[in-house]
Specification:
Radius of gyration: 28 Å
Number of domains: 2
Shape: globular
Number of helices: 7
Helix content: 25-40%
Strand order of the largest sheet: 3-4-5-12-11-8-7
Length: 239
């Protein structure tokens, strides 16, 4: 068997495979077909070289389409989605949410001036009060996690260098995606899910997680993503 017949045999196999794969609207095939027609009009050795180069291009296109088809399969999509995470938080897709416990109540608030003083001392953050209203309860613990509750949202923050890993478990159909908070990357977990930390699992509503410096911030509440991003962008350290 000559090199030319081998090339043509490989081309026939790839053409048969390609017939079962839908080519995109802007396919390379018309250009390749035209090149093959031109090759047949020139010397045989040049035609063989042209055909070999053309079928390499066809093979690359077919393999790319097959890869896209594999990614579209549900188990593969979940495998990719399971890689989602940010800071010390990981997101896992689960069929059923794990059992959860009641969240620990936050202490009654002191004065706003005291809260601002403690946040400034520990280089922590708070959102614009014009967007969230006054804090209704809080717990400032820079060694573990600081949590501040407002009327519609809860802001938690912790040092991502010392923070233990947290796992968010999201059921099927959850809206999990990367977003940007200003110029920083963030991760949004929409819908009811759970958060597991230090062996305790709690229910969560919509959650937005991002980082500022060495601090991982988490905003939770029954608010649409657009509104949560607005609040997150307003977060600053008290002066």
């Amino acid at each position: 068997m000559t090199d030319g017949s081998l090339d043509l045999g490989l081309g026939a196999d790839l053409a048969d495979l390609g017939s079962h794969v839908a080519l995109p609207a802007h396919s390379l095939w018309p250009r390749i077909g035209a090149e093959l027609d031109r090759a047949r009009a020139v010397e045989p050795w040049r035609a063989r070289r042209t055909i070999r180069r053309s079928w390499v291009v066809v093979a690359a296109v077919v393999l790319a389409l097959v890869a896209l088809a594999i990614v579209s399969i549900a188990p593969a999509r979940h495998a990719v989605a399971d890689l989602l995470g940010i800071g010390a938080t990981e997101v896992r897709h689960v069929r059923e949410l794990p059992p959860s416990e009641a969240a620990t109540s936050l202490p009654s608030p002191g004065s706003r001036a005291e809260l601002e003083r403690r946040l400034a001392r520990d280089h922590l953050y708070e959102p614009d009060p014009d967007l969230v209203g006054p804090a209704v309860a809080w717990s400032v613990d820079p060694r573990r996690e600081t949590t501040i509750a407002y009327h519609d949202v809860v802001l938690s923050q912790r040092d991502r260098g010392d923070a233990p890993p947290a796992v968010k478990s999201a059921p099927p159909g959850s809206d999990v995606r990367y977003v940007t908070v200003g110029d920083a990357p963030g991760l949004f977990v929409g819908g009811g899910h759970t958060r597991t930390l230090d062996g305790h699992t709690y229910r969560s509503a919509n959650a937005l997680i991002w980082e500022r410096g060495n601090i991982e911030l988490r905003l939770e509440g029954d608010l649409p993503l657009r509104r949560m991003l607005e609040v997150a962008r307003s977060v600053e350290q008290p002066q």
